[in-house]
Amino acid sequence: MQTITTRPFPASRKKHVSGILYPELKVPFRVIEQHATLEVWNGVTRKTPNPDVWVYDTSGPYTDPDQTVDVYTGLSQTRRNWVLGRGDVEELPDFSSEFTRNLLQDSQTFPNIPRPLRARSGHNVTQMHYARRGIITPEMEYVAIREQERLEGMQEYIQQHAGQGFGANIPREITPEFVRSEIAKGRAIIPANINHTELEPMVIGRNFRVKINANIGNSAVSSSIEEEIEKMVWATRWGADTIMDLSTGKNIHQTREWIIRNSPVPVGTVPIYQALEKVGGKAEELTWEIYRDTLIEQAEQGVDYFTIHAGVLLRYIPLTARRRTGIVSRGGSIMAKWCLAHHQESFLYTHFAEICEIMQAYDVSFSLGDGLRPGSLEDANDAAQFAELHTLGELTRIAWKHDVQTMIEGPGHVPMQLIKENMDEQLKHCFEAPFYTLGPLTTDIAPGYDHITSAIGAAQIGWYGTAMLCYVTPKEHLGLPDKNDVREGVITYKIAAHAADLAKGFPGAQIRDNALSKARFEFRWEDQFNLSLDPERARSFHDATLPAEAAKTAHFCSMCGPHFCSMKLTEDIRRGMQEKSEEFQEKGLNIYLEAAGVEQPT
Amino acid sequence: MQTITTRPFPASRKKHVSGILYPELKVPFRVIEQHATLEVWNGVTRKTPNPDVWVYDTSGPYTDPDQTVDVYTGLSQTRRNWVLGRGDVEELPDFSSEFTRNLLQDSQTFPNIPRPLRARSGHNVTQMHYARRGIITPEMEYVAIREQERLEGMQEYIQQHAGQGFGANIPREITPEFVRSEIAKGRAIIPANINHTELEPMVIGRNFRVKINANIGNSAVSSSIEEEIEKMVWATRWGADTIMDLSTGKNIHQTREWIIRNSPVPVGTVPIYQALEKVGGKAEELTWEIYRDTLIEQAEQGVDYFTIHAGVLLRYIPLTARRRTGIVSRGGSIMAKWCLAHHQESFLYTHFAEICEIMQAYDVSFSLGDGLRPGSLEDANDAAQFAELHTLGELTRIAWKHDVQTMIEGPGHVPMQLIKENMDEQLKHCFEAPFYTLGPLTTDIAPGYDHITSAIGAAQIGWYGTAMLCYVTPKEHLGLPDKNDVREGVITYKIAAHAADLAKGFPGAQIRDNALSKARFEFRWEDQFNLSLDPERARSFHDATLPAEAAKTAHFCSMCGPHFCSMKLTEDIRRGMQEKSEEFQEKGLNIYLEAAGVEQPT
């Protein structure tokens, strides 16, 4: 087994917060310790401590030196008691899927598979169902706590600019009741399969922090189970809020089992991929029975959300005929091929109500796939794309009738001036169900840099109201991402999501920015590194030119050198202002500061 | 001397276009050759050629195997005849600056320095002056040709989405007369010092393509002359439209000379840096006389634009007292320190008219520096920043009275929801003089990735109307960029600028996107690489998993593998539609296509 990355972040420790409704909750945060501010003023050194900065932490126990992780055992099944405690599930004697049962003895199989849970007959175990009945679940209180910034002692950092939310409705404090009401309305989801009890719940919705997803998974030409587990750990380390296992190669079932048992974040899949493998890659041979068994197989493993391309209707396919790049969604093109071969609507559409019944028995959330998303700028916002979006809205209504949690996938390749229309149409036609977009990429001409072409679009659409951003790595269009690509993609998307949170005015979003800028201004280099999204890279870039320990407190860096450091000069200026101010005060004058209407520095 | 990068781009050759008003012009383009499209249809292979794609080329003769470059000689002084031909300049017997004269025998001095030119007494040699007198210069026709896309034979690629220009006024065709009128109005500049006759003229203005600048230059702790020349060549290779030499270390004068003599793009500087070196780094010892001599020294070398922080007024400095990060512009902090020490307005402000007289004698353009730009989100759009912007507007009026070309520098660190206000204020208070912004960075928390935090903001402000984007590299805030950082920064900013051109609807902007997407869809991997902003990286990323030559025509890549390639599936779908269509046509039906209101594929 290849090594799993477990080193903690520098100057950081894991802290857990308990609930009020549910005192047993242990909601994880990463707490970054800061150095004191040192000021030399008239020859006297004054040392002022700086508070810990609490940050949202997706990395699970892997970054906690107090916890031992054994990937052969899997993570602790913390949620199992919560699920069982609701009294509406049963432990099945065996897996419902024959396909699963046949693989249990396979040498690649995870050694410690839990017994599958399912809703008892006549019960609905979705978070939406509870929410609509007025029940606040442990999951809801958990995510409410998780969304908050720690504000105590942060007075100096709390200031932030007013946001522009384009109709979002973000409260000053995220309460468990607010979470419940958002889920009840369909405006947010907590993807949390009752069979993935290892996960640390998180919420996806326009009125919460913008989330990011990282795609991992092997393909027929590359990658192994070990690599995929490490990619999951690696992606969540850098900040992935969910991962999707898009494996299409060998051992799809087993790979997924290993990933889920070890994943602290929700896991999504596209079940049609595996169904296609079951029929030897021949789309036209897919059947509802094979697909249905695949859904149950994956639901009993604990997949938290399914991408289902049920909006690809027969009559929309000709709308793609004149496109520059046709159908670029894998699932979309598989279903289109099936529809044409059979000349009928897909079984995803015709059996949608039955799919809802499966979803509600395990609390799997829908991610209604945009099978007809544009794959090039030229195809953006075209008739095919928006026709499918309207159908996804109709399907959302059906899912909600079954109390099944639902989000909607979005594009793709879209030039900047057309991005907002995507958000507006989605809000309107899908009734504010959370939007989950891939980028969008704002130009087609930069393969090798598509994490950047798409981060530009992702930040904007996140600002406009998208709830989760699916990352794009530098390898997009060119090959399967490796670990470096995953890190680059995740950090890039954390930037986009955070920029969106700031622009929307999410309460407390600017605390980390303010803390880091304060550290920067005070030449606390270590704190600047530690507060950054990627402390290891920040440090190594600094040390590339100034590796000496002394440089970590120097009042300059190699970018400008000592004479040209503006921050160093500003120190002098402020002292100058202070001295001038004192001088003038003695003379009964206070020219500088009064003229500018500014209070004096104290 | 370290090796200068001269390899041409793959499948590319340099072509030159001559003028109509000035037939001797040789306006450079890079022409990318494409492979033919191969279609197998009913067993017959049809080969359809694809046209050459012409792209804007900033790389000068370095990427042209037909030209020999010798950095000891410098580039051809093509513009010298144009300048002399206007009959309004004189060749000086010697350099006006004593500082320059003293360095001529220095061992580091460039061996082939041209004799300096200056406007004859009573003459004004700026492009703005000519433009206002109705004269279309060779420079104006040159940039008009350069801004155009080559449209002949591109019918299949010409389609693009309508732009949203926020009041920009981009014509369908850029004519020399349009260039002249934009320059006359102050809405555009052609930075082109009469002493930098090696340069290939380019235009900066809201109604032209968005440009990017790359900062190079040594600092006291790093870098050599050789490295800086190669950085210039390297930056323009990847697409820098101008470079700024921000050297603050040793041999500033000589480094600049080598760069200018070898630079095909305009070179900007911040003269106060060198002036500060002349007084041993003590800001308060700066004088107008030293600064004035530095301006003349640099103007006679051929610097094309000067960043001058003349808007830092005494009364604005206290407005920065409560800022999170004070004054972060190097020039701004130097001038603030001077103002405070002397308790008077800076010589940049008090001698502004004299500075204009120097500018007009050499046609150096102003880049009015934003010395009080915000260095952290918290300081964005504050009183200090906007107070200075208003003063820059007043100075623009004075510069324009002298017919001196002027652009305005902008921030900095700005959260997304506050970016547009920057553009709106600038347009309003600076009368549509071109805006030239640094990013802006949309969050402070990602040192090591600030090319990305800032590209998000740069694309937006470019869309809103900024004419030139100053790049930010991954090393921002951490150290001096190396070659890899320069490449990463330039490509990232080309993406932002191009995304802005697309969003504004610049005519022809989408041609390259359409061509690349067509190549992608047709599995012309080589063409996909060759049409991209960084062909070398695109190819190496692809080859990381599928290095074999055969994979360059394969109908899949390692991202999805052969069974899951949506584009491969779309081919099948289109054939399916075609066959169905034929089948139904025989039966007198045409269900698919008519239902969708789409013409049949032919």
From TrEMBL, chains A, B:
Ligand binding (Zn(2+)): 413, 477
Name used for this protein in its record: Phosphomethylpyrimidine synthase
Pfam families found in the cross-reference section: ThiC-associated, ThiC_Rad_SAM
Annotated organism of origin: Deinococcus cellulosilyticus (strain DSM 18568 / NBRC 106333 / KACC 11606 / 5516J-15)
Residues of the ThiC-associated domain: 8-90
GO BP term, example: thiamine diphosphate biosynthetic process
Binding-site list for [4Fe-4S] cluster: 557, 560, 565
Residues that coordinate or bind substrate: 215, 244, 273, 309, 329-331, 370-373, 409, 436
Cofactor, free-text remark: Binds 1 [4Fe-4S] cluster per subunit. The cluster is coordinated with 3 cysteines and an exchangeable S-adenosyl-L-methionine.
InterPro entries in alphabetical order: ThiC, ThiC-associated_dom, ThiC/Bza_core_dom, ThiC/BzaA/B
Organismal lineage: Bacteria, Thermotogati, Deinococcota, Deinococci, Deinococcales
Record's keyword terms, sorted: 4Fe-4S, Iron, Iron-sulfur, Lyase, Metal-binding, S-adenosyl-L-methionine, Thiamine biosynthesis, Zinc
